[in-house]
Amino acid sequence: MAAIRTSDQRPPCCGGRCVSVCGEGRATQTKLQGPVPRLSKENLFTLLSLWMERFPKENPGGDVPDEDLEADGRVLGLHCSGVELHAGQGAVLRHGARGLAGSQLYFSRRPCATCLKMVINAGVSQVFFWPGDPEISVLRPGDSDPDLSPEARLDAAATERLKANSRPPVCVSCLRPVDPGLSQYVDQTSRDSDFMERVQEDQPGLDTDQLQRRSHLQELSAHFLVVSERRHRGVLAHLGVENLCLEPYFSSLRNTMQELVELLASVSAGLPLLDHGFYSSEEHTAQTHTAGPSGKGVAEAPGGPRSPGGPRSPGGPRSPAVSQEVARHCIIQAMLLAYRTEDPKVGVGAVIWAQGQSDGGEGTGRLYLVGCGYNAYPAGSQYAQFPQMDAKHPDPQWSKYRYILHAEQNAITFRSREIPVGAPSLLFVTKCPCDECVPLIRAAGLTHVFTSDQDSGKDKGEISYLRFRDLQGLTKATWQKPPPADPHLTNGCVGKRRGSQGSHSDQECHDDKRLCGPVTPSPPPPPPPNPIC
Ligand SMILES: Nc1ccn([C@H]2C[C@H](O)[C@@H](COP(=O)(O)OP(=O)(O)OP(=O)(O)O)O2)c(=O)n1
């Protein structure tokens, strides 16, 4: 991304759309070396920080989110700059020194002095940043740039001094070369994901492939890569890492950056917002829609979320107004996490976000991260310590299911904040929750689940997905075409997933990017005189 040059005198560094990722602890300590290539944790955190920079701007709660995540296991949070706060400031505000001490922060750009002094002061152990386009404030003092304000020059000098004299190292992200098989694996699994499968089932013949991937890649490359080698060398020199300009480091760095951006493009192309989105079939018709600040529709429910298994609490907090773009953004975070799976066959990722009462001044608005997870063996276990076979293995004692922790279980277990009581909490999980996790989700008090309904209703022997359909007391939004707006006026039934022919009202609803909210407590609309079904 090009340096942001603003007309005001504020150093525009992280005030642009910088993102920080920080964390500590670990979800699992396994050094799994299975046949499936895995994303290294450094690359995962880097990708999450880059992806946070793409957080949808129209988030109705505010503007753009921030994220911080663990460097070694536990993701503490994901942050992104907002109108008032830079990403680093947001992280300090949310976690405080107690939360940040010893953690690692991943930034999608080198932090400005304002952020750097705060995160250093909070006791973080390391600060990493993506060596892409510089922000204006990283230009060194003395560089002759007519657009560089005196304040930006001072900021650049302060950043250098803080970086040089601080105890925690402030350095370029240690990007790991991507495993040769990983790109192919990510591309393939992203094409075959449950979400893409649904799109292809509903719209056979749709060329989602090349078109989608190419446009995602173009967009992300333009944002995160420096096309010209000469310019990139200049950027690295400005960032204070001249040594990376030398060969073979320079070529290797550029290759890895390119590979990571391609990887991100593959994953994000796996969830095309063409005619699909997250909708709650059962409750689709009862939601209330309002226009978001961007003019795009958002789903908003006038009452609060229902307590697990019970009715909505009257006068409770409002349900989250989450646009399709925000939901898609979060499920892509979960998809990225899934590439750290320790299951030799199926990767699943989960993230939990909650919505607070007030806008924290960050890009995420009222949303804040509660936890992240992926399916893996118990923390601290070693490779091959536990069985890895699936249900097809004739001897059940070698099957994995009794040992592997599910993505939701890890997200709940290694959460960095409490799941709020009486406030919206949103679980994004890349696979339908199984029967083992449904009671957990209910008991945890999660109010919204965004997932795929692939395998829903199936009993696969060792693992079954029978209970999610009947799970009551929360909003379940699955990836699908918009259900008919009014079951009485269309030839569909409430809750039916397929069969919508994309009526005008469906299209309007999709254009509005609405998510289905919980059932409104207001009286249902009167039935038409001659209902069709
Ligand atoms: N919501 C979910 C669903 C599943 N999993 C994890 C648990 C297991 O690691 C794996 C199980 O996935 P499948 O149900 O696809 O079962 P199999 O591994 O047997 O694959 P398949 O059905 O393709 O034979 O996914 C998870 O973490 N969270």
Briefly summarize what is shown:
The chain contains 13 helices and 13 strands.
> What distance separates the N and C termini?
53 Å
Order of helices and strands: EHEHEHEHEHHHHHEEEHEEHEHEEH
Summed over residues and divided by their number, the pLDDT gives a mean of: 76
Individual helix count: 13
* Low-pLDDT residue spans: 1-18, 22-31, 59-72, 284-318, 487-533
**Could you tell me the number of beta strands?**
13
Structural class computed from helices and strand pairing: alpha/beta
Largest sheet features: 6 strands, mixed
Rg: 23 Å
Range of strand content: 5-15%
Strand order of the largest sheet: 6-13-12-11-9-10
Q: What overall geometry do the principal axes of the alpha carbons give?
A: globular
Bound molecules: 2'-deoxycytidine-5'-triphosphate
Detailed description of the structure:
The strands form 3 sheets. This protein has a 6-stranded mixed β-sheet with strand order 6-13-12-11-9-10. Strands 2-1-3-4-5 form a 5-stranded mixed β-sheet, sandwiched between helices. Strands 7-8 form a two-stranded antiparallel ribbon. The N terminus and C terminus are likely disordered. The chain is 29% helix and 11% strand. The protein is an alpha/beta fold and 533 residues long. The N and C termini lie far apart (53 Å). It is globular and about 65 Å long. Helix 2 runs parallel beside helix 3 and helix 3 runs parallel beside helix 4. The protein binds 2'-deoxycytidine-5'-triphosphate.
